[in-house]
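A.,

Following up on our hallway conversation. Structure tokens first:
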């Protein structure tokens, strides 16, 4: 059993990771006060404070730290560059410094959006990033700051879906919520990605720590899909009306932040070093549906402040 500190524990990844990890490990979360009576201790923190994590690190003495804290809304990042820089770059750097000084293992979560999406085929860890949005720029700077401050840290570029406490944090929830209410939505036919169910991602991150991996990894699903087909798959799995989803080019949308067309990432390095197959979107969608049947979304939403 390891002692794990999870930052941003109220987020989509944070809460699901904590629920997975607490089965076998001792968990403490650090968050901005968005949780109410979760099944693990949480320290309230001001993420704009340079020394925010030091009290938790010195009091809890974690074996591992997993940094899920970030500003992930692309449109909000475009509007609030200063906040995005602090939460996606500065916070990551400061945490890496604090962990390195204490010789604590660290996983920092980054994003597939660091690539411009202009190439054909899949991106590997050796390919040069070219971020197109404020979100992607600040996350890439965060990656590099962590690498410099804590050379033995794990950096995981991710893309995931699942149930969140607010019910509005993932693309899967977007389609489920709107289609359940009979609302028409758009699905981008020219944005390809490799989504991974957040619970599969959580298990993989824990396995990476258990196997003492370090360095940069692409931690996404093994199956590429466009966002229109993603929506159709959610509709079919839940028995919702597929015709409510209209195919659309991302270039024709009203979104401000630029989206990359191809975010297909290779997971060869990850699967080789872990010695296992990486789950696909299809199997993750089955798990996502099973959680719905079991009342899991209501369970985690009960922890929301």
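Then the amino acids I'd put at each of the 305 positions:
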């Amino acid at each position: 059993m390891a002692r794990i500190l999870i930052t941003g524990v109220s987020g989509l990844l944070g809460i699901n990771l904590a629920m997975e990890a607490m089965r076998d490990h001792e968990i403490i979360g650090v968050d901005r006060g968005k949780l109410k009576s979760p099944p693990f201790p949480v320290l309230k923190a001001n993420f704009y404070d340079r020394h925010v994590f030091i009290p938790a690190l010195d009091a809890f003495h974690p074996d591992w730290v997993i940094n899920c804290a970030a500003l992930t809304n692309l449109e909000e990042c475009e509007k609030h560059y200063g906040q995005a820089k602090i939460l996606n770059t500065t916070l990551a750097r400061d945490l890496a410094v604090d962990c390195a000084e204490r010789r604590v293992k660290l996983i920092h979560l980054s994003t597939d959006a660091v690539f411009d999406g202009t190439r054909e085929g899949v991106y590997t860890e050796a390919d040069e990033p070219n971020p197109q949005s404020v979100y992607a720029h600040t996350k890439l700077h965060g990656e590099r700051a962590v690498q410099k401050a804590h050379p033995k840290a794990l950096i995981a570029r991710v893309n995931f879906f699942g149930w969140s406490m607010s019910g509005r944090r993932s693309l899967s929830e977007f389609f489920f919520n709107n289609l359940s209410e009979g609302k028409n939505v758009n699905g981008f036919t020219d944005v390809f990605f490799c989504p991974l169910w957040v619970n599969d991602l959580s298990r993989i991150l824990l396995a990476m720590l258990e196997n003492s991996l370090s360095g940069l990894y692409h931690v996404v699903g093994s199956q590429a899909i466009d966002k229109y087909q993603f929506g159709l798959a959610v509709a079919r799995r839940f028995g919702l009306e597929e015709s409510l989803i209209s195919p659309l080019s991302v270039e024709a949308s009203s979104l401000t932040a630029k989206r990359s067309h191809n975010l297909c990432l290779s997971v060869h390095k990850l699967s080789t070093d872990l010695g296992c197959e990486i789950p696909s979107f299809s199997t993750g969608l089955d798990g996502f549906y099973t959680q719905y049947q079991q009342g899991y979304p209501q369970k985690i939403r009960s922890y929301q402040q």
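The first strand starts at residue 3 and ends at 7. Curious whether your intuition agrees with the design.

B.
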